[in-house]
Amino acid sequence: MSVAASSSSSSGPASIGQGQRQSQGTVSPSGSVALQIQKTLGSLSLEQLDRIFSMAEEMREEEGNYQSPSESAQSDWRSPGGFDLMPLIIGGDEWARIEAGLAQRVKAWNLFLRDIYSGQEILKAEVVPYEIVYADPNFHRGCARLPGVTASYLQLSAFDLQQDARGQWLVVEDHLGVAEGASYALKKRQILRQIAPRLFEGLEILPVEDFAAQVMDILQELVRLPDGRARAVLLAQGSSDDFYLDHAALARQMGVSIVQGSDLVVLDSRLYLKTIGGVEVVDVVLRRLSTSYLDPVIFDPSSRYGVPGLLSCVRKGTLAVANGLGSDLANNRALAAHLPQIIEYYMGERPLLHSPQIYELRDVDVREEVADNRDAYVIRHAWKRGSAHEWVARNMPTNDWNRFWAQVEAAPREFVAHKFPTQNQQPCWTSGGSRLMPVTVRAFALGHDRISSSALAWTGPASSLAQTTERIKDVWILRAVPSQPAAVHAQAEEAPKRLRLTSRVAESLFWMGRYAERAEVTVRSLRIVQTLPWPTLTDNVTARLRQPLWAAMAAISGHRADFFLRPGVNPVKQREIPFYLLLDRKHAGSVFSCLMSCRQNAENIREHFPPEVWSVLNHLYLKVAVYADQTEEEEVRLVLEDRSLHQEIITQLDELTGALEKHMLHNDAWHFWQLGVYAERSLMTMLTLKEGLAPEIGGSPRIEPVSSTNLDLLLQMLAGQYAYRSLYHARPVAARVARLLLQDQEFPRSALFCLEGMRRALTATMGDRPAKGADTPLKHCSRVITELNFIDMANYFPPSGGSASGALGDDDLSDMPTAEFPQKLHELNDLLLDFNVLISDHYLDHQVILREPELFDLSSTR
Amino acid sequence: MIFNIVHTTAYEYSAPAIESFTELRVRPRQSNRQIVHRHVTEVTPRAALEEFTDYYDNTVECLSVPYRHKCLTVTSRSTVETLPHKDALSGLDLSVSEAVRLNWPQRRELFDFLMPSTHSPITPEVEALARQQLRSSGSFSESIHGLCSYIYETFTYMPGVTDVRTPLADVLKKRQGVCQDFAHLMIAIVRAAGLPARYVSGYLETESIHGTGALIGATASHAWVEVYLPSGIWVGIDPTNDMLEGERHVQIGIGRDYHDVPPLRGVFKGAKRQQLSVMVTVSRTTGETVAGK
Predict the structure, then answer these.
(1) pLDDT reported for residue A61
(2) What pLDDT digit, counting tens, does each position of B256-275 carry?
(3) Are A734 and A693 in contact (CB under 8 A)?
(4) Is this model's pTM higher than 0.90 or not?
(5) Rounded distance, CA A699 to CA A684, Å?
(6) CA B148 to CA A629: how far, in whole Å?
(7) Hey, are the CB atoms on B64 and A845 less than 8 Å from each other?
(8) Which of A266, A292, A304 to mutate to test the interface with B (most CBs of B within 10 A)?
(9) How close, in Å, is residue B213 to chain A by CA atoms?
(10) Looking at chain A, which residue has its C-alpha nearest residue B16?
(11) Using CA atoms, how far apart are residues A107 and A352, in angstroms rounded to an integer?
(12) B191 close to A (CB below 8 A)
């Protein structure tokens, strides 16, 4: 297959070196490498190419767990043409010029930020118009004169570059608040190395692998703790962020926790991370949120992502934030228009790298020019980023334009314009063939003078990186790797402290377990109860007999036991019961609501369990959601009636448990899932038993002989029929059923079994060096276990008539519990409920540690 | 005059709250018009107070209560001596447009107080009022006094009709509000005319003592306005009482509007609802209490 034949665009191979030719017409080193790679690619057979692309696809699917929301929304995200084999080649000298230019730029911006948040000399000198700064909402007055920050604002910044038609590199955008995307470079390089190792043969290119370690070094330099390493966290918005993939990958590579605001708490002007092992000091935050979101007390009060009091820690000097608070200001495009003057003012230099001309619309003459020749311009918001804040006049109907222009006239300071760039095109090689495309490069600066070799490039609009992770190109910088002294990253390679699970993640897993279990018990019970006669039918004898089972169903689904027995009050009609308990969105206890809550918790912590688990859970949820949306359909009525939906949900919940068991590391996260499952199950078993044997109808427990049919049904509700038969080979007897459900050591739904499971999980999560009092939940667990073991069924099901002499067989025991039996279950129930508070106080909110300070002053009388 | 001021704010939560973090701006500022002899802030439940100075030089105290608590009470006690100062506004002989022009060299320093802000937006209604009340050829001092009287006469002091979130447009429509609303309105009109104005948060002695007359406003904190004079002086003016700031006004802090100087701002987790109660007493005292301290 020849290059020409595979090329889908009109430009043939001859034009492909364009832009990499030097002015004299000789081919530059980068140009010749590009030609060589294209030749290699051109020599591959169709089959070889197919194999390469399907390998790329497979590798991507392995990572597919972390699709960002905008990617999954995009229809072409799995388009086969997506993977670009052709790297962007940048020569060593060319890169050196870029490095020097960016280093100068980042230094200038740092000096500018320092000045603006202290003396504002540059504004007094009228080098930069003060209105641009003062009117920008990212100029945070609360960040002025913060100690620590004033030395260094920029630890990790990014710059987007494009080549103009003459091959000149221009900086088209600065990212000085947060700089995202670097992990994509690493991922791309890894895949390319694996699927097309031949391309790398004989070339010396700079590595991308040490980016995370370099970022870590920069953070350590920023804090410089005299004793040991600073504890860092990466603070992000969570899975709803377009760059969530990048955040999670960077945190993983750096070996730090990726956290959200609710993971952190401020205590006496220090920042702490809440983990299941207690609170841990945080020394430095790598932020992936703009300053406005970081502290709801100081900045945007509606922010759900920040940490109240974070700024007070910075003010006290106990915490460093990278990039420095308020640095987002420098993203203002109108400020960038004045960068040459800024460089001149602080450094006495001329800019080494240029930018396309920026037209500031606050100038009335500029406004007129742009309005008159609007087709030549693209207009952008001065400080808001993304395609929603870019306007292209030639795509707009006149009416829209007029409306838009009125906005500009009302607040001209908020807008800038650019001429349409004439961009240089670069060769791309996808399964669709080779073609030329305009490319944007993102380079990263670490601190003030180092430019990372982890650059990446992408095709498509410059502002679309978050949406185009599939169109990323690897960037190859042709330079021999400098032989590094081995000790450079020695610090980073120290065995890192094991990261404890954060409390928020633990809480989500706990609730995932609880909701999944609640859904299961509900659907299992419904499958049985649904076939029983309506409990309030007066002319049906069986109906009254089965009332305890309805009471159990009501309790399981979060209602009073007599919920189904009060015809006047009860809002649910008989034939609506399956819908109400299974699919009703408005009922918080419905299976659908439980699955939704389970999935929501899962979605927030997706990086903590394997993709297999997510895929089962998501599939189950979506399936049930489809039914919940089509309740008017005949088919839905049918699957509710013949209980095939019930069976399907049960099967898939089994699959979920299986996937978790098999694919998840049995670590702290797993233990919290288990804790949730067992906590919920023990409660549910207890409730079912209590209502099934002594239903609380009319305000007090109804004590009657329990029929063996009812016991049989009760066992079925708890999937215990098989267990009972295996153990007793006889018809169910009340005392035996009670024993099985409460005290059996082998039956997975018995209360005892669940509590033993909880005890295992609690023991495992205590860690190596538990804090004082950390074993309180464990002690409580042991206490409940002891209580359970000490229950003697003979006391609660006394033999009818006979005195308690000699050894009594179960068959001698009564088929009717005493009034003390529901009382005992009630006590046990309360003990189980105490776990919620204990777990939350010890592992989640840490109320045990965060106690009100006590006075130690001896002279004070309390 | 010397005042003992006790400012108590109590939050009662519907359920125990945790992780609350609060910023207080209740310490009267030191200036050539007032001397702060004493200031203490007490918090229940116990929490350490941190202190800092904000962008507009107001003193801020902040505290965090991470553990479970059912209520939060903050009491600040200040002893402040206000000094008599002469009326810098009334004698000025210049027009509104001259004042605008004379301020021009200070535009950078004054920028924050010339621009519209969250609570003082410059809407078409505000612009119309500015044209009507602050005509460019009119006398600067008479126009400012006139605007103050206009607000006093046109709007009715009516607690409970508005709150912090009520937009200026509603206040204009209802013609009712409290000191905060009147201050925001006056600021917006003054700024619309191209003149700098800022928001003052403070206290006011309301009771009539020794026949000085009762004043409107302060069962809680009071708010008024400062207008910038080309001579470089900020002069205080109180549209709620149609008067210049006097010895019975005690300043806490200044800002672009309420948003910059709320007496108390905080967040908490846990509880869904909270009941807020504020009690302020401003009582005049004799010099001995200060000296004896």
Answers:
(1) 66
(2) 999 999 998 888 887 777 88
(3) yes
(4) no
(5) 20
(6) 60
(7) no
(8) A266
(9) 39
(10) A847
(11) 12
(12) no
Domain-wise residue ranges, chain B: 2-83+261-292, 96-260
Interface mutation target, options B104, B198, B267, chain A, most CBs of A under 10 Å: B267
User: Is A306 near chain B, with CB under 8 Å?
Assistant: no
A844 contact B CB<8A: no
Is A131 touching B (CB cutoff 8 A)?
yes
Size of interface A-B (CB pairs under 8 A): 68
Q: Judge residue A10's burial from the number of C-beta atoms within 10 Å of its C-beta, 0-12 exposed, 13-18 middle, 19 or more buried.
A: exposed
Q: How far is residue A263's CA from residue A279's CA, in Å, rounded to a whole number?
A: 10
What confidence score (pLDDT) does residue A842 get?
A: 85
Angstrom distance (rounded) from CA A291 to CA A138 = 8
Query: The tokens of A719 are what?
Result: 């999937």
**Cβ of residue A144 closer than 8 Å to a chain B Cβ:** yes
Q: Which CATH number fits domain B2-83+261-292: 1.20.1730.10, 3.40.50.2000, 2.60.40.2250, 3.30.565.10?
A: 2.60.40.2250
Beta-bridge partner residues of B42: B75
Q: Which residues on B lie below 8 Å from A852 (Cβ)?
A: 45-46, 67, 69
CA distance to A499, A782, B19, per residue, from A771 (Å): 16, 19, 21
Least Cα distance to A707 among A741, A687, A731 occurs for A731
And the tokens for B213? 């007359």
Q: What is the pLDDT of residues A540-591, one digit of tens each?
A: 888 888 999 999 999 999 988 888 887 666 667 777 889 999 999 888 899 9
Higher pLDDT, A535 or A97: A97
- AA identity, residue A853: P
- Whether residue A17 is predicted with pLDDT greater than 70 in this model: the reply is no
Across the interface, do A134 and B115 touch by the CB < 8 Å criterion?
yes
Amino acid in position B79: T
Tokens coding B101: 């022009």
- Residue A309 touches chain B, beta carbons under 8 Å: yes
Q: Tell whether B45 lies on the interface with A, counting CB pairs under 8 A.
A: yes
| Close Cβ partners of B160 (under 8 Å, ≥ 6 residues apart) | none
Dist CA B103 CA A750 (whole Å): 82
**Contacts of the segment A572-580: beta carbons below 8 A, 24+ positions apart:** A574/A534, A577/A526, A577/A530, A578/A526, A578/A530, A578/A640, A578/A641, A579/A631, A579/A640
Q: Which residue has the higher pLDDT, A326 or A635?
A: A326
CA distance A381 to A332: 9
Contact (CB<8Å) B64/A131: no
Of B50, B69, B108, the CB nearest to A316: B50
Report the distance separating Cα A382 and Cα A391, nearest Å. Answer: 12
The predicted complex's ipTM stands at 0.92
CB A422 within 8 A of CB A435: no
CA dist., res. A528 & res. A521, Å (int): 11
Location of structure tokens 């006690």: B77
CATH of region A359-419: 3.30.1490.270
Does residue B241 have a cis bond before it (omega within 30 degrees)? no
Residue A493: pLDDT band by 50, 70, 90 thresholds?
Answer: very low
For chain A, how far is it from start to end, CA to CA, in angstroms? 90
Nearest to A554 by CA among A696, A346, A748, A731: A696
Give the closest of B54, B62, B267 to A296, CB-based: B267
> What span, in angstroms and rounded, lies between the C-alpha atoms of A320 and A313?
8
Tell the CATH topology of B96-260: C8orf32 fold (3.10.620)
Q: Mutate which of B18, B19, B55 to disrupt the A interface (most A C-beta within 10 Å)?
A: B19
Is A261 an 8 Å CB contact of chain B?
Answer: no
> Please, what is the end-to-end C-alpha distance for chain B in angstroms?
16
**Please, where in chain A does CATH 3.30.1490.270 lie?**
359-419
